Amino acid sequence: MEDRSHKVLLALVMLFLFAVIVLQYVCPGTECQLLRLRALSPAAAADPYRAEDETPARFVPRFNFSADDLLRRGGFNIKGGDLIVFLHIQKTGGTTFGRHLVRNIQLEQPCECRAGQKKCTCHRPGKRETWLFSRFSTGWSCGLHADWTELTNCVPSVVDSKKEVRLRPSR
């Protein structure tokens, strides 16, 4: 009987050690359980920048935009010479936003997108020139995922090449 109780005790100790090892693998650090409990408290949800262990936050937002800043509207003259150049930064939702620019914006003359075509036609009202320079309107004119430097060198030459010299707007 004593031999059997030793085996049960040994099995319980082994199970406990196994559980401790698994816990350390899944949740390293001493605060793990404490962090999980605090994450469920309503105070933790109130301020996303507050550290879980109440130490001063390492990340402090530099830009605190007011509601007026966020709702500010810029002037864009679709009938004039204004041009929107969309700089696509990879892995930031740029493809979705680029599609939104050509498909969902309510303008006097929205872009024409045909089923099965990757490019849309974004002409100014009454003109055969584009108001949007993006992969969804002009294609890969400046290369795949052109950066700021490539766009500043490429866009003027691409836009100007499609116009007569006398119709080119001054920049």
UniProtKB/TrEMBL annotation:
<comment type="similarity">
    <text>Belongs to the sulfotransferase 6 family.</text>
</comment>
<dbReference type="InterPro" id="IPR010635">
    <property type="entry name" value="Heparan_SO4-6-sulfoTrfase"/>
</dbReference>
<keyword id="KW-0325">Glycoprotein</keyword>
<dbReference type="GO" id="GO:0017095">
    <property type="term" value="F:heparan sulfate 6-sulfotransferase activity"/>
</dbReference>
<dbReference type="InterPro" id="IPR005331">
    <property type="entry name" value="Sulfotransferase"/>
</dbReference>
<feature type="signal peptide">
    <location>
        <begin position="1"/>
        <end position="24"/>
    </location>
</feature>
<keyword id="KW-1133">Transmembrane helix</keyword>
<keyword id="KW-0735">Signal-anchor</keyword>
<keyword id="KW-0812">Transmembrane</keyword>
<protein>
    <recommendedName>
        <fullName>Heparan-sulfate 6-O-sulfotransferase</fullName>
        <ecNumber>2.8.2.-</ecNumber>
    </recommendedName>
</protein>
<dbReference type="GO" id="GO:0016020">
    <property type="term" value="C:membrane"/>
</dbReference>
<keyword id="KW-0472">Membrane</keyword>
<dbReference type="Pfam" id="PF03567">
    <property type="entry name" value="Sulfotransfer_2"/>
</dbReference>
<dbReference type="InterPro" id="IPR027417">
    <property type="entry name" value="P-loop_NTPase"/>
</dbReference>
<keyword id="KW-0732">Signal</keyword>
<keyword id="KW-0808">Transferase</keyword>
<comment type="function">
    <text>6-O-sulfation enzyme which catalyzes the transfer of sulfate from 3'-phosphoadenosine 5'-phosphosulfate (PAPS) to position 6 of the N-sulfoglucosamine residue (GlcNS) of heparan sulfate.</text>
</comment>
